[in-house]
Write a structure and sequence with these properties.
The chain has 130 residues and is an all-beta fold. Helix content is 0%, strand content 45%. The two termini are 21 Å apart.
Amino acid sequence: TASEQYEDSYLSELTDNIFLEGDTPSYGDAKLSGYNSDTTVIIDLGDDRSRLYQFEVSYLSTMVAGIAPLNRCRISYSDTNDKETKWTAAGNVVKPDYIENSMQKATLTLEEPIDARYVRFQLYKSSAWL
């Protein structure tokens, strides 16, 4: 589930697995969340999960109104989530070639699966908005 610190109606939008599709996605679409600073999202999988090997982040690919595709997204993981948590780096997502005014997915596929309860997505912007 998502956390109260994220703009996420009913604690479901960031984790509902709905990928905004269509011919003309827009930054005004209520299905999208926007951030004007680098953002960290931590997903609690509920309990320890095994054989995690692929992670995706979707984003609006446009150069309008100060919005730009993410600069990069770093993935890390842990079995705990408190002040003493030591996150283990999994890697950075690989972005596809830029396609204007579309929804795109960046993916990290690991060579070896990992076990974790928490997955952290550190999203870095490349313009005023992400």
